[in-house]
Specification:
Helix content is about 20%, strand content about 35%. With about 100 residues, it is of the alpha+beta class. The chain has a single domain, classed as Alpha-Beta Plaits (2-Layer Sandwich). The two termini are about 20 Å apart. The model has no long low-confidence stretch (mean pLDDT about 90).
Length: about 100
């Protein structure tokens, strides 16, 4: 992915009932529709971590979606921070994956 000036990368931690409700797969579907690269993975504390790299507007749309999630999710909080290119240098940005 070309990391131009309108491209940002974020790390979001989503808390609530977000495991076992197809949250990661649904996040992948949303990300692919928005041409966002990165991944979604379960964390040991019951949260989902989302690393997303894409157009600022698309990232904004994904962040809005993360606050609701799929049908059976009950999102309590979404905490997102912008991350640097160094922090994503070892991430495959050719697709959006469920880890």
């Amino acid at each position: 992915m070309n990391l131009g000036e309108n491209i940002i990368s974020v790390r979001c931690i989503v808390t609530g009932k977000v495991q076992g409700v197809f949250f990661r797969a649904s996040t992948r579907e949303q990300a692919l529709q928005l041409n966002i690269k990165g991944y979604a993975k379960n964390l040991s504390g019951g949260e989902v971590e989302v690393i997303a790299c894409g157009n600022k507007d698309a990232i904004g749309q994904l962040k809005q979606w993360l606050n609701c999630g799929p049908k059976y999710a009950k999102v309590k909080n979404v905490d997102c921070e912008v991350i640097s290119n160094q922090e994503i240098e070892n991430i495959d940005l050719n697709n959006f994956k469920v880890l």
